[in-house]
Amino acid sequence: MKTFILNNLNKLILVALTFVLLVIALSFTIDENAKKLIDESFKQAVIVFGSAKALNGVISLAQGTEIDLPFVVIAIGEILDPINDLVEQFSLIMLASLISLGIQKILLNFVTNEIFNYILIVLVVILNIWLFKRFQNDEKLRDIFFKTTFIFLFLRFSIPMIGYVNDITYNYFVKPQYNIEKLNENILQVKEDVSKINKETIQQKQEESTFFGKIAEKFDMSFYEKKVNEYKKAVDNSSEYLIDLIIVFIFQTILLPIVFLYFLYVMFRKIVL
């Protein structure tokens, strides 16, 4: 017995490891928590995406605001063009983040499905039998089967782990400097400020709709300067907020999952393949 253990120590360790992994795989508590974390990230991304589209809407409205000056018509909202371009680019990035999170949800549902787990159980059992029982000319088939089994194990654990890695990374390393909730509140405040100025501008133009009011408005440079300053003040820090959100979502939903899966795959391959 002692000789058998010593001669097959590596195989026995592999058997124990695969069965431990199998027990963990069948513990759906891990899966439920991973799904919850990804769902929360998805909902958060949807909220921020909605805020960006709302800001884009009020800025587009502001860009259509015009002031009649002597011999020229000036669109006050033109000063908001750079911000609006940034908002549109941010919206595209948020769309990419939502797609990434959606794919993660699909993959998580795939690897936690009962059929996937049943296949994994069968593969692990056959793998452990094959470790001790050899067949004639089975080298090539055995190699393919081993790789298939370990790929299934890799997918089964790596996909759920993405949610945990994202959550830990955000809460302990990213959030202190790039708080998504706070940044989203700042974006909503900018939206409210621009919307308020839009309403005031429309009301002022309606109040000055009389003949003499229009004449006075045409030669009133102070009104134009005041509105320009109001818009500048309203969007003063919006570029910084948007860039911070771009950094967070590219890192959290695109870069980190890819780097994590690649690192895990390299480590996994070196250890077992």
Task: Summarize the topology.
Blueprint (H helix, E strand, L loop, with lengths): L1 H6 L1 H17 L2 H36 L2 E4 L2 E4 L5 H31 L2 H19 L6 H36 L5 H28 L3 H8 L2 H14 L3 H35 L1
Antiparallel strand pairs: 1-2
Helix pairs in contact: 2-5, 3-4, 3-6, 3-7, 4-6, 4-10, 5-6, 6-10, 7-9, 7-10
Give an overview of the whole structure.
The chain is rod-shaped. The protein starts with a helix and ends with a helix. Helix 3 runs parallel beside helix 7, helix 4 crosses helix 6 and helix 7 runs antiparallel to helix 10. The protein has one domain (22-272). With 273 residues, the protein is mostly helical. The mean pLDDT is 82. It has ten helices and two strands. A two-stranded antiparallel ribbon has the order 1-2. A hairpin with a 2-residue loop joins strand 1 and strand 2 (72-75). Helices cover 84% and strands 3% of the residues. The chain has helices at 2-7, 9-25, 28-63, 81-111, 114-132, 139-174, 180-207, 211-218, 221-234, 238-272, and strands spanning 66-69, 72-75. The longest helix has 36 residues, at 28-63.
Describe the structure in brief.
This protein is mostly helical.
What is the strand tally?
Answer: 2
Distance from N terminus to C terminus (CA atoms, Å) equals 28 Å
Question: Approximately what portion of the residues adopt beta-strand conformation?
Answer: under 5%
Largest sheet: 2 strands, antiparallel
Unreliable sequence segments:
none
User: What is the number of helices?
Assistant: 10
Number of domains: 1
**Mean pLDDT level:** 82
Global Rg = 30 Å
Shape: rod-shaped
Q: Assign a percent range to the helix content.
A: over 70%
- Element-by-element helix/strand order: HHHEEHHHHHHH
Oligomer: single chain
The largest sheet has its strands arranged as 1-2
Would you tell me the structural class of the helices and strands? mainly alpha
